[in-house]
Amino acid sequence: MKREEITREKIEEILFNSLNNADTGVNVQVEKGHVTITGIVDTLSEKDFIEKTVRSLSGVKKLSNALAISTDGKIDDEDIRRVITDRLAGQQGVATGNVGVLAKNGVVYLKGHVRTLEDKGIAEQLARSVMGVKEVINQIHIEKDLEVPHDDATLTNAVEVAFSASPQVDAHDIKTLCKNGVIYLEGVADSEQEKEAAAFLAGTVPGVRKVINNIDIEY
Predict the structure, then answer these.
(1) Between vectors from CA 100 to CA 98 and to CA 103, what angle results, nearest 5°?
(2) Looking at the domain assignment, is residue 64 inside a domain?
(3) Confidence band of 149 (pLDDT split at 50, 70, 90)
(4) Among candidates 109, 171, 83, 99, which has minimal Cα distance to 142?
(5) What is the mean pLDDT of residues 141-159?
(6) For 81-95, what is each residue's pLDDT tens digit?
(7) Under 8 Å CB-to-CB from 150, ≥6 apart: which residues?
(8) Is residue 202 one of the residues assigned to a domain?
(9) What are phi and psi of 33, to 5 degrees?
(10) Are 157 and 197 part of one and the same domain?
(11) Range of the domain at 191
């Protein structure tokens, strides 16, 4: 069996098990390491999942993600806005009460402010999981809490403390830099999961406005 056929079958197996590909009709083509995916999925988060999963597979040199988001002709912008607003209101433990939602032709705009970068990301993922959403423009700001110190040295220390307390991250191999509230992560991680965990933890620190993840994977 050719390598292209093995890669295609592997991708189709993942899609079938994760997204019920038999119903969605997602099509996969592989030619010389170039994967092309076409078809229709229900949500933007499903499209994101497929892209991330396929890019992580060995043998994939290039990916063309031509998946479309289904609206089924029944979902309008007001439906989208209402569903996202309801989900934000029902999200326990996340300060999303100051987030506003605007939907126009399937494109969702998130506005307002939250306490942490983590909350900003959660709000976006909630929006991406709603049927009919074609794109999310995240314009949420991290609120400036006067009770929380925002100087770079304090933020750097807070991120490093979060790393030290986590079993998912080896703090000794990751270097943390901060400039104007932006955290830069450098060094090496044992896996993609550890790299992502480091970025997630940095985003949970109040005052961090953005995380630039330059961590390398040690193979």
Answers:
(1) 165
(2) yes
(3) low
(4) 99
(5) 77
(6) 999 988 888 876 666
(7) 144, 181, 207
(8) yes
(9) 85, -5
(10) yes
(11) 152-217
How far are the Cα atoms of 156, 158, 170, 181 from residue 152, in angstroms, in the given order? Answer: 6, 10, 22, 6
Task: Write out the two tokens for 159.
Answer: 């991120």
Specify whether 64 is located in the same domain as 117: no
User: What would the two tokens of residue 111 be?
Assistant: 């506005």
The pLDDT of 45-59, averaged and rounded, is 85
- Distance between CA atoms of residues 105 and 76, nearest Å: 8
pLDDT for 170-185, tens place per residue? 888 899 999 988 999 9
CATH number for position 109: 3.30.1340.30
- How does residue 50 score in pLDDT terms, banded at 50, 70 and 90? confident
Among 42, 40, 33, smallest CA distance to 64 is for 33
User: Span 148-167, mean pLDDT?
Assistant: 85
Amino acid at 118: E
CB atoms within 10 A of CB 15: 24
Asked which of 142, 168, 187 is the last residue of a domain, the reply is: 142
**Tally of domains within the chain:** 3
> Do 134 and 171 have their domain in common?
no
